[in-house]
Model the fold of this input.
Amino acid sequence: MIGKNLLSIADLKSGDIQRLIDSAIMLKRGGKKILLEGKLLALIFEKPSLRTRVSFDVAMKQLGGEAIYLSQAEVGLGQREPISDVARVLSRYVDGIVARTFAHKSVELLAKHASIPVINGLSNEEHPCQVLSDLLTIYEKKGKLKGLTLAYIGDANNVANSLLLATAIMGINFRIATPKGYEPELKLQKMAPMAHFTQDPKIAVENADVVYTDVWTSMGQEAESERRRASFAGYQVNQELLSLAKREVIFMHPLPAHHGEEIAEGLLESTQSVVFDQAENRLHMQKAILAKLLR
Done:
């Protein structure tokens, strides 16, 4: 792991990621667990959460530590008091911080002023913990990462950004199909020069090993939902689209899903879906991340 924090997939090298995957597999199989006895983790969440909150909370308990949840109403990050002050106070109380924020800058400011590790639990730019869990799931299902082809269909949101960076680091062929105007930012495209960008989902999915999608409207974009539904019409992942991929393709989604929008009804229950394995692996990857940063 590079540095004391995990703010972006770009903070990692291929060896770092593989070691986290190996550690998560060991912990999942019941390896040594009491690694963080006496450690405390603060969860600062500006957004509601199911998987991120529960997986980090349970991960700490399974490793022998404890987690403290702090909502935006309690902390008022950057409103009730400056982010720098929050970071310095929490550094006196706990051993690490997970921040789930709207602005990526908030996570960066916490890391800048904290003397303890800060983990990006989600920001508007990236979702590194989700994507590390995704790589763990792909590795379990396919036995490798390098050389695989991953097709992402839909909005170039924080998950897509982290996937773009992670696939470039791990030698995965990345294809992303988005409507015009919804592509990843140019600075990120330059960080993944081998990635393929298209507006045609069929081109992206052809002979892919993994097909991935996410919601068309993320938290904080609710006012754009109708416009986004119109823009993304034709970008739904369904059996017809999956039929263009390899026969043994796996389908992934970070959840929550909007059934009937970005995915067809019933797709999560299909034989190709590994979505709930993916969700479970959030727990095991969080344990690996915490063991690495907090020990």
